[in-house]
Amino acid sequence: MEIRPTTDEDLEVFVDTVHAAFGRFPETPLEGGGLWWSALDMDRCVLALTADGRPVGTAGAHSFELTLPGETIVPAPGVTAVGVLPSHRRQGVLSAMMRHQLGELRARGEFLSVLLASEATIYGRFGYGPATYTQELTVPRHRAAPAPLRASATTDAPVTGAAHGSVEMLRSAGCGEILEEVYDRYRRAQPGALSRPHRWWALRAGQPPISPAPRYVVVHRDADGVPDGYASYSLGEPETTLTVDETIATDATVFTALARFVLNHDLVSRVVFKHVPPRHPLRWQLADFRAGKVSGDMDWLWVRLLDVPRALTARGWFADGELVLDVEDPFLGEHGRHLLTVRDGKADCVPTDREPDLSLDVRDLGSVYLGGTAPSTLVHAGHIRAHRPDAATLADALFRSDRAPHCLHWF
Ligand SMILES: CC(=O)SCCNC(=O)CCNC(=O)[C@H](O)C(C)(C)COP(=O)(O)OP(=O)(O)OC[C@H]1O[C@@H](n2cnc3c(N)ncnc32)[C@H](O)[C@@H]1OP(=O)(O)O
Questions:
Q1: How many other CB atoms sit within 10 Å of the CB of residue 277?
Q2: To test the ligand 1 pocket, which listed residue (37, 58, 62, 89) has its Cβ within 8 A of the most ligand atoms?
Q3: Is the pLDDT score of 395 beyond 90?
Q4: I need a surface site. Which of 59, 92, 278, 295 has the fewest CB within 10 A?
Q5: What is the mean pLDDT of residues 67-95?
Q6: CATH code, 353
Q7: Average pLDDT, stretch 6-25?
Q8: Is 321 one of the annotated binding-site residues?
Q9: From the CB of 87, is ligand 1 less than 6 Å away?
Q10: Which atom of ligand 1 is nearest to the CA of 89?
């Protein structure tokens, strides 16, 4: 088995192989549904080839930036287009590609990588852990009456937005620049969010990148007319449903205004908000708390740490404390014991031979890294071992994020 990097000349064979792996028929790479492939960086992809040179596996990586807790922005390769032909599965092709790719990422100086998993059973063995989560919230319009917002009379807490800005429907052609700018402001402040390279927007201006269907777009502007949020949505069956793909808001009041706009839409019987983070405040803003039905609760962004000290010192921290972490990395055959010391929002992470507070697999460290999974959950689940009774409580306080991490980018 040979794993080799690809060039632009390999695009067709790469797309052909990954389509076969996903059970789809080839499309013309730069048109229609094949558009997605034109966003690939061919110099960040690999092909797995049999001894006689037949391509049987593919893997790639996008060059993203990831926002960490504390609004630190770091490079994050986004692993994508992973597939092995059905005829060559369970023979170690993916394992060989993952080993090659992780080595290559380290050689480039990356200290973490991320992906979206087609199945939750695939990537844990390679050191990835689920780190952000997503849900759908469905609200029947006849039950969408707003709750009076108790704090709004006395404080600057979220209000309906009407008095604080405006909502405007845009023609989808030509609004890409505004959306790109709003998305960029949003993702820089949102832990777990990924950058969207300019060419993604250029490919499909006015729609969530790489969305095949037409979308309506509403933009929210602040009192000075500056765009500070948008929602992209479509109308259709079943039962005259309005489906919001993305609600991008630079603060909570903007989300409220956009949500009110779609919930007031005539000729619609229900509104589906896709990609909301768990425990989203929208349900609290409805007079009928039970009107918002949660579904599609699942993992979204998976994180893999490649250099534990660099990763831990890169993010911001919101409580002081000290923990000794004993980290196993079975796939790469590595082990490290780290003293993590947090003071005034910054961490120091050095090797130590002190007794550990927590023993954990690198995949579990990936899960807790962005603050979206409490270490105590994984202690109670039986994955992380706490060596003293208060270690999990301290770890929960330390790994917490200033804002719950969330990612809605699909790649
Ligand atoms: C980031 C992304 O692109 S996600 C998209 C992933 N791709 C797909 O879902 C496309 C359809 N599936 C495939 O192409 C293949 O089945 C792949 C890529 C998931 C797996 O490739 P393979 O070459 O079969 O994997 P490989 O042989 O290296 O398996 C390594 C181990 O993972 C296990 N494994 C592989 N795939 C799966 C799976 N889908 N579910 C559970 N376990 C799996 C194997 O059993 C093996 O376990 P072992 O080490 O205990 O024996």
A1: 20
A2: 89
A3: yes
A4: 295
A5: 98
A6: 3.30.1050.10
A7: 91
A8: no
A9: no
A10: 24
Q: Are 163 and 268 members of one domain?
A: yes
Pairwise CA distance, residues 335 & 108, whole Å: 21
Residue nearest to atom 26 of ligand 1 (CA): 92
Catalytic residue among 64, 123, 186, 331: 123
Residues 344 and 286 grouped into a single domain: no
**Does 404 fall in a domain?**
no
Instruction: Specify the pLDDT at position 162.
Output: 47
Looking at the domain assignment, is residue 302 inside a domain?
no
H-run or E-run covering 406: none
pLDDT value at residue 35: 62
- Is residue 116 in some structural domain? no
Ligand 1 centroid to Cα of residue 61, in Å, is 17
N-term to C-term CA, the chain: 27
pLDDT at 239: 75
Provide the domain limits for residue 152. 135-297
- Cα dihedral value 91, 1, 98, 57, nearest 10: -80
Report the predicted TM-score, pTM, of the whole model to 2 decimal places: 0.95
287 plus 318 within the same structural domain? no
Does 227 reside within a domain?
A: yes
* Strand duo 385-386 + 241-249: pairing: unpaired
Q: Is the complex ipTM higher than 0.95?
A: yes
